[in-house]
Amino acid sequence: MLTNQSVAEEIIRKFGDDVFDFEEPFGMLTFSTTREQIIPMLEYLKAHPQFQVNFLTDIMAIHYPDKVGQEFCIVYHTHSFIHNFRIRIKVFLAEADVHIPTATGLFASANWMERETYDFFGILFDGHPNLKRILNMDEMDYFPMRKEYPLEDPTREDKIDALFGR
Amino acid sequence: MTETAVAPKDTADLAQGEKVQYVNELTTLNLGPTHPATHGIFQNVLTMDGEKIVAGEQTIGYIHRAFEKIAERRPFYQITTLTDRMNYCSSPINNMGWHMTVEKLLSIEVPKRAQYIRVIMMELARIADHIVCNGILGVDTGAFTGFLYLYEKREDIYEIYEEVCGARLTTNMGRVGGMERDLSTTAIRKINDFLKTFPPVLKEFEKLFNRNRIFMDRTIGVGGISAERAMSYGFTGPNLRAAGVDYDVRVMSPYSSYEDFEFDIPVGQHGDTYDRYMVRNEEMWQSLRIIEQAMKNLPEGPYYADAPEFYLPPKKEVYRSMEALIYHFKIVMGEIEAPVGEVYHAVEGGNGELGFYLISDGGRTPYRLHFRRPSFIYYQAYPEMCIGSTISDAIVTMSSLNVIAGELDA
Q1: Which end of chain A is less congested by CB atoms within 10 angstroms, N or C?
Q2: A85 φ, ψ to 5°?
Q3: Which residues in A lie closer than 8 A to residue B252 (C-beta atoms)?
Q4: How far is CA B50 from CA B22, B30, B53, B177, in A?
Q5: Cross-chain Cβ contact A165/B409 below 8 Å
Q6: What angle do CA B179, B185, B189 make, to 5 degrees?
């Protein structure tokens, strides 16, 4: 039986200062790492004889336009089927430099997940075999899930935020 | 995809008939986007060597509706209608998965009765989902009869939906905090009728297919995938279990009182079309077992949680009490703010692990909402599964993967 505490200690022992911001929202072990360490981290968790985090549940991105220097957060959800243990890993990227290495070498499923993240946020996964749009049309020249693209026509005056949500 | 269609050099080639096949000219073939055998809008650009598939590439996104973006501007209760448009073959599972995610964020404890009603509806939805998949698999292998037998029972399930929520396909079933209404006597009678009348039909269906020589020849060894590759490709649900991995969210991390029920997780061995078919069939039996237990032990009590800020008050009270009127107004206008937090909640959807990753910044709407859609993740294995096979095998493989276009494209 793995506990958040024991796994976190072991990860800190191995990665030292490259892992930080440990949290457990609703019981899921969550921490951040750097762009350089994300692939070694996934590889380490996958190959670890005890953890065996052998399943990549999802990759997605979040845009925080107000966090200067950390505008994009890439979230990896991983899962160990053997211990039924989930780990959430975050990597923060600056808007000026949205490169991150691909995880397709470790998990075949990362292929489309990364393409989706590229499609909506413009995150560039270095080394990806086929990084192009997946759900949107190829001619699109912007990344629609970024916060600077509001959903509704911003010039409308009859719908004000005070009455109609965000 | 570097190969393109190579036209015959001159008409003399065509005249030679079958000889042309042996020149090893690669042909590009468009399967879809609107081919009747693909059950949805999928395009596959296949490179063919004669009748063998050499390479394939999928184009998806034909019905992409930007749900994740829309969700960023909607109050939580309005997002339910987006979820049931994803896997429209089992919409109640999507609805309830979303409700449970929000309840987890708000720390709402749902009463047992509501949890049991949810289990009943989710298992009915699973049966409906598997009926579609297995019935149509029969059609694709050339047997229409089984499909007709089963579809009649799917209609019964839709009538139960109608009784419980008023809608059939896009159900919008339940609310954040419980169910919208209690099970009526008609609903209970219909569920009990279904429990009695479905097993003989399913048995007949199995008799038609399970040991049918033509069906076995068409499905055994077709579209197989190993357990390792399936896990690497992010398979979940019946498709992963057919490959021999006994992963089921209902057992691994039980939600909505699944720990109260006794049921088995069927697994296959080879991960081929026949195993997927068998796993789905067996799951229908197990779902029936769960529904039977839930109906027998259905607890008494309220069917919604005491969460006045999120659960609409009864209409009668809205007309009488000031407090209820205020809550009604605030909920409908989406003025209630959720706490800050991030939550990942997964349910066992018809196709596998359906996950909701919700990030709330304390506003009225999600800051970011991401759907982990099982079809989207496992459909990328499709070319690998059909390389080396023929077109007819590729059709059967796609049918047995049960890729739902709405879920694929969100």
Answers
A1: N
A2: -125, 125
A3: 81, 84
A4: 8, 14, 8, 57
A5: no
A6: 110
Q: Return the amino acid letter for A125.
A: F
B342 to chain A, closest Cα gap in Å: 7
**C-alpha pair distances (Å), A26 with each of A4, B90, B101, B341:** 12, 27, 11, 9
- Pair (B50, B141) in one structural domain: no
What are B339's two structure tokens? 């706490």
How far lies B108's CA from each of B55, B100, B236, in Å? 50, 9, 28
What DSSP character marks residue A136?
A: S
Alpha-helix runs per DSSP H in B141-259: 145-165, 185-209, 213-219, 227-232, 237-242, 249-252
Cβ atoms < 10 Å from Cβ of B4: 10
Hey, are the CB atoms on A84 and B253 less than 8 Å from each other? Answer: yes
Beta strand B26-31 with A124-126 is unpaired
pLDDT digits (tens, 9 = 90+) for B276-331: 999 999 999 999 999 999 999 999 989 998 888 888 898 898 999 999 999 998 88
Q: Assign B235 to helix, strand or coil.
A: coil
CATH of the domain at B161: 1.10.645.10
Q: Under an 8 A CB cutoff, do B233 and A109 touch?
A: yes
Look at residues B59, B79, B94 and tell me which one is the last residue of a structural domain.
Answer: B59
Nearest Cα neighbor of B399 from B104, B148, B69, B39 is B39
Residue B125 CA to residue B178 CA, distance in Å, equals: 17
Q: Is residue A81 part of a domain?
A: yes
Residue A60 contacts B, CB cutoff 8 Å? yes
Burial B224-238 (b: 16+ CB within 10 A, else e): bbebebbbbbbbbbb
Which residues does B68 contact at the CB level (< 8 Å), separation at least 6? Answer: A120, A145, B368, B369, B370, B371, B410
> What angle is formed at CA A108 by the lines to CA A107 and CA A114, rounded to 5 degrees?
85
CB of B57 closer than 8 Å to CB of B1: yes
Extract the tokens encoding A159: 């719908």
At residue A104, does pLDDT exceed 60? yes
Among the residues of B22-144, which ranges form H helices? 67-71, 76-83, 91-106, 112-140
- Tell me the pLDDT tens digit for each residue of B98-131: 999 999 999 999 999 999 999 999 999 999 999 9
Do A109 and B73 count as a contact with CB atoms less than 8 A apart? no
Residue-wise pLDDT tens digits, A84-99: 899 999 999 998 889 9
What integer pLDDT is reported at residue A76 of this predicted model? 94
A160 touching B (Cβ < 8 Å): no
Q: Which residues of A touch B72 (CB under 8 A)?
A: 151, 166
In a domain, residue A54? The reply is yes
Domain count across chain B: 2
- Which one, of B367, B78, B332, lies nearest residue A166 by Cα? B367
The answer on B291 and B194 residing in a single domain is: yes
- What does the pLDDT look like over B214-255, one tens digit per residue? 899 989 988 889 999 999 999 999 999 999 999 999 998 899
Rg (CA), chain B: 23
